[in-house]
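BUG: 3D viewer hangs when loading the predicted structure for this chain

Environment: internal workstation, default settings.
Expected: structure renders.
Actual: progress bar stalls at 90%.

Input used:
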Amino acid sequence: RARPFDLVSSPSACEHCASGCAQRTDHRRGKVLRRLAGDDPEVNEEWNCDKGRWAFQYATVGDRITTPLLREDDGTMRPASWSEA
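Structure tokens produced before the viewer hung:
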């Protein structure tokens, strides 16, 4: 964890729905530690949903898919290039 004075804040937008709510992303050493509502009262009235607040951990999880996968006829997945996918 980090103290607020250890964090760098960057303006961002929520990626979980089409509203694009304004958010403030607080990070340290390249890792996102928290996301808070941004200052955009026309869009989200300085609130954000639970998904926008807590669902950022997918970006740093160890089993995240980092390359395209194609399903073979037998159901197995194989890595593919971006152009092939």
